[in-house]
């Protein structure tokens, strides 16, 4: 019994501790940033502590974060998730409020308010799928890159937010009302030449700062170029960014840059590249702003490379012979192409065509630099770039909002189409039911007409049959001694063919009200 009581006491003590833990967890789950079921803590793999992570940082930051990004977070103090409040907005066509303003390969971006300062910020939640080493590496490198860069046209990292109950990590950025993709798609945004020059000048200035600090963005596109209400453009989303050294022989991955903005050397599998990959993407952005749409919209890598060669020209034969790229034999065109940028975009400003041809050169060595692009005639000829403060003000417009609106519109069209199909089926069923309900009247009317037609004969005996036939149609009678009946059934010869009266059973069917079809025919035969 003593053993039993001891076990019961131990069990009661353990249950009490578990209840306390569960109550504590319920209290922490009341904050808005409480993790979902997918964000439950998972087993963290053991990492070797990086040099530069001191004891204070180890206590303040989660151990897994110190293990992979100890140098990057050194000197910073973490913020807790419950000190921020997400700001939801209503999207037309969607029934729920949406706080998400962006999405990346490993992250989601939300609009939130700092409860300490009252400032509106953007929270980038980094997703970790069971602590994928690649995701951790990109996250640590993004933090390091952002801490190294400091330019008015580069997004600024303001802090890091951790959650006590999960492995989630939030990067805090300044909030920007627009992105270039959303503005270019908006009908109210008219991109005149001076406005295009204003945006492009800021873009290339920020890119020149990145390259001078040895940073490749590797995902330059309109949706990653953010704009605030003062007209300031900032380069954002450094999730695929990397450091580069022109003299380094260390290979890099070619699976970067969104397909429509990817240069040909990456499509051919290059693993050694430099600033030219970003300059190609800048050329695509410039042409997109002037054309009002993306200029190279391939669905596959093969199609994308084919579109590039048709517009920008294919490399000379010497390039294919000397090239060491792995996929040159697969993508070599059967016939050479010449550059036709000027013919394709003949409506563009003349000063822009030279810059576009330089940035979209198939050979990355001839694309120049960002500093050289700022000195091109595109920026030194009239009309000059306008001041950012003179740009018109627009309501908040982001690519994510456009996608949500399109999704809501597609959903609404699908509901309307389904409703139309349902109504059509309902009307068809009602019509078929009406047809099945009233067939007898029409059939009997036709039968009565046929019967009247049969009664109309050439002889008096055929028009007015004897009483014994008319009153007992179809019944067997003895009419051998009845001369009047014999006269009514007398045959009339007409050549070799003779008409006969229809059998009595046809007339019985004709008088039946439930009859729908009754065939009455004349038989011709020899006597």
Automatic annotation (TrEMBL):
Which domain of life does the protein's organism represent? Eukaryota
Protein name stated in the entry: Protein kinase domain-containing protein
What are the record's GO terms for cellular component? cyclin-dependent protein kinase holoenzyme complex; nucleus
* Positions annotated to bind ATP: 124
Query: What keywords does the record list, in alphabetical order?
Result: ATP-binding, Kinase, Nucleotide-binding, Serine/threonine-protein kinase, Transferase
State if Nucleotide-binding is listed as a keyword: yes
Q: Which Pfam families match?
A: Pkinase
> Which residue stretches belong to region Disordered?
1-32, 458-477
* Signal peptide range in chain numbering: none
The cross-references to InterPro entries, in alphabetical order and at most eight, read: CDK, Kinase-like_dom_sf, Prot_kinase_dom, Protein_kinase_ATP_BS, Ser/Thr_kinase_AS
Gene Ontology molecular functions: ATP binding; RNA polymerase II CTD heptapeptide repeat kinase activity
Task: Give me any GO biological process, just one.
Answer: positive regulation of transcription elongation by RNA polymerase II
The record ties this protein, via CDD domains, to: STKc_CDK9_like
Where does the record place the Protein kinase domain? 95-379
User: Could you say which protein family the record assigns here?
Assistant: Belongs to the protein kinase superfamily. CMGC Ser/Thr protein kinase family. CDC2/CDKX subfamily.
